[in-house]
Design goal:
alpha/beta, Spore Coat Polysaccharide Biosynthesis Protein SpsA, Chain A, 2 domains, nine-stranded mixed sheet, two-stranded antiparallel sheet, 20% strand
């Protein structure tokens, strides 16, 4: 353009010719952080600054400065559902119904209530019906319209989210929960995110993830926990608290998988709801198989705990493990008894059974 002096191209002094193995100076981080604050889109271009530890430090400072909250929920749905066979032989276990809607619908409702903007489903072979559940069924919808069944039509359309709010990525082999979460890395990007295990639905108001989001602190990892009988700690992943509980939350020093009751650091079990920082992907990428010869999410979380803050938080309500027959039956009873339309009929039936 006429009248504009371009001058010679040069690097800004603050980050001129950095060594890839050197920790960036505070002035370098401040300079790059200021760029990020001007325009979040330059995050991608700045990924080229691959210092040994510098990018992760800058990334944490950026997320904190921009007050980034989790916007994506990763929902692993690739499992075979072996604990509920043969029910899950032809139907994904996530589509088994609790009262009048499938498990995955409850998970969707919990995520949306918490302010999650994008649902990333990690699927496997034979799970395409889950994707169909979040799409229009035009013939069905047109039939309901013609028959003026408006209430049913509205319920059917509840799971049809705005275009672009769902993603489906494939886990080609059953390599564990940690591997399933890692499969979502490119969808999540370098931001904090939630993980919701669809085997577990939680009955309570507000829902569990909403309470976790209300407690969220920039840069922290949060795990939902609930108290279990001391003699049953060998059935669950148990957290090790640091100090005293305050307002239903406590900082963690570690976690132990199915400890003997005599050696358990607490009686608070991990419930299947997490808010994690993006550095977990870096650890999962190189995580060796653990228990069951699978890549375990808890193994990488234990490593991340040495670098970042982890907080355990309780929640309102009760959890139901619908990945087991007993838990599935209990969930149907709990949700059924409180159902506004069907609750009275179920109560009457149970009363008649004595």
């Amino acid at each position: 353009m006429e009248g504009v002096s371009r001058g010679a191209a040069r690097d800004p002094p603050a980050y001129q010719n950095p060594s890839l193995n050197d920790e960036p100076s505070d002035s370098t981080s401040d300079h790059l952080l200021s760029l990020l604050q001007l325009d979040a889109k330059v995050t991608v271009s700045l990924r080229g600054f691959k210092w040994k530890n510098g990018w992760q430090r800058l990334e944490r400072r950026y997320n904190a400065a921009m007050a980034i909250r989790p916007k994506t929920a990763v929902i692993p749905v690739a499992g075979f559902g072996t604990r509920v066979l043969p029910a899950s032989k032809a139907i994904p276990k996530e589509l088994l119904t609790v009262v009048d809607r499938p498990l995955i619908h409850y998970i969707m409702e919990e995520a949306l209530e918490a302010g999650i903007e994008h649902l990333c489903f990690v699927t496997g072979r034979g799970k395409s019906a889950i994707e169909d559940y979040f799409d229009h069924q035009y013939e069905l919808e047109e039939t309901l319209k013609k028959k003026n069944k408006t209430a049913i039509l509205e319920m059917v359309q509840e799971s049809v989210l705005t275009a672009g709010r769902t993603s489906f990525t494939r886990q080609q082999a059953a390599l564990g929960l940690g591997h399933a979460v890692w499969c979502a890395r490119d969808v999540v990007g370098r931001e904090p995110f939630a993980v919701i295990l669809p085997d577990v639905i939680i009955k309570g108001k507000p829902k569990c993830l909403k309470e976790m989001m209300d407690r969220y602190e920039d840069g922290a990892n949060i795990i939902a926990v609930e108290e279990v009988p001391n003699e049953e700690t060998n059935k669950y992943g148990i957290i090790a608290p640091k100090g005293e509980w305050s307002n239903g939350a406590v900082e963690m020093t570690g976690m132990v998988e199915k400890p003997d009751p005599a050696e358990a650091p607490s009686n608070f079990s991990i419930t299947g709801r997490y808010i994690l920082q993006p550095e977990i992907f870096d650890l999962l990428e190189s995580q060796e198989p653990g228990a069951g010869n699978e890549v375990q999410l808890t193994d990488s979380m234990a490593k991340l705990l040495d670098q970042q803050k982890f907080v355990a938080t309780t929640f309102t309500g009760e959890s139901h493990d619908c990945g087991s027959i007993d838990g599935f039956l209990k969930a149907n009873m709990a949700f059924g008894l409180d159902h506004p339309q069907h609750g009275d009929a179920l109560k009457a039936y149970l009363a008649s059974r004595g």
